[in-house]
Amino acid sequence: MMDRLSPPFNTHVLGDVTGQETVQDGTSYLPASRRTKKDHIIVPQADTEFLSGELLVNRINAVQDWLWICGRPMPPRPLHHQVSLSREIIITENPGLHLLWSSKRIFIKPLPSWLLDPEFWRVYILNDASLAQCARGFLFSYTALIAYESDFRLAHDKGLIPSPVTWDSWKDLVSEVLQNHDMAMVNARYWYGELRLDRLNTVYRFKGSVFRGYSKVTGHSDYKDLIADNFAILATLLGYVVLILSSLQVGLGVDRLLESTAFVNFSYGFTVFSILAPVIAGFGIFVVILIMFASNWLVTKKYEERRFKEMGVEPYWRNKSGKERTASVRKRDTSRSKSSDVV
């Protein structure tokens, strides 16, 4: 059983061990830039804010009790198995999308170099319980994803693991991680492996995010596609309605059915329904899309106003109107001065 204040491994898989000063600084492992929560682009630092964005899965933890709907409490299947399921491996740097799948795609976050350095764990990760649990769970998921040498080759081809890592060093690291592994010490999200993104979206819609769900990475790219898909579903339902109407029409030509009051009443009611339902459904689709458009427009305008204030700039249309007002004032003052000269 491993100590909570010790890294899950001591094997160095990145080749030459970096100096203590490099580890203390941490910047050699970090990306070139990062986006803050307010969408500012800055030079990353090995601090809690950066590591939280790289490791924490708070949105999945918020619906932890519902994850049984989205997947099974089992480690993810290896990469070669994902390929055999005809799933395309999509690279994501968002930990909240790691191991989520939809249709023929599965999202996987690459294993960062800093997570393969035991000294980095000691300096930056282990002093924060939440970061340590997520880091242990994320690393454990890779012990399942890269089980065979074929998985290792796939991981290298897809850029999922750092290039200095060799197959022999990877086996040594995995062996050490699994010998010291304890599921009670990993984040609860990693009690589950692959999660269905469509079902996770449904859970979030049920919990209140009706229009956005959990993630829109598999959603419609624009309103045109959204309208087309909804009306395609409506057209399919109408095709079924037409078949029923045709059957009812044939039935009304049969004397035995024509004498049945219940059948005649049903035929009458269903005929009225088939006339009104498409109009109501079509109107409902447009209302929902209009609400989505209005909601997105309001959110975008509020975000735009806040961003301009944070950036310290004025929108170009305000500058334009200001220049026009200034020009009109100058023109009016000039005309007044000429009039006074004539007088």
By secondary-structure content and strand pairing, the structural class works out as mainly alpha
Number of helices: 14
The topology string of helices and strands comes to: HEEHHHHEEEHHHHEHHHHH
Report the mean per-residue pLDDT as an integer: 83
Q: How do the strands of the widest beta sheet line up side by side?
A: 3-5-4-6
What is the 3D form?
A: elongated
Low-confidence stretches: 324-330, 337-343
Question: Could you explain how this protein is built, in words?
Answer:
With 343 residues, this protein is mainly alpha-helical. It has helices spanning 20-25, 48-55, 58-61, 67-70, 79-84, 118-125, 129-145, 149-158, 167-179, 197-206, 223-251, 255-258, 261-311, 316-342; strands at residues 34-35, 41-42, 88-91, 100-102, 105-108, 195-196. The strands form 2 sheets. Strands 3-5-4-6 form a 4-stranded mixed sheet. Strands 1-2 form a two-stranded antiparallel sheet. α11 (223-251) packs antiparallel against α13 (261-311). The model is unreliable at 324-330 and 337-343 (pLDDT under 50).
Ordered list of secondary-structure elements with their pairings:
Layout: H1 20-25, E1 34-35, E2 41-42, H2 48-55, H3 58-61, H4 67-70, H5 79-84, E3 88-91, E4 100-102, E5 105-108, H6 118-125, H7 129-145, H8 149-158, H9 167-179, E6 195-196, H10 197-206, H11 223-251, H12 255-258, H13 261-311, H14 316-342
Parallel strand pairs: 3-5, 4-6
Antiparallel strand pairs: 1-2, 4-5
Helix pairs in contact: 11-13
Keywords, separated by commas or semicolons:
343 residues, mainly alpha, 57% helix, elongated
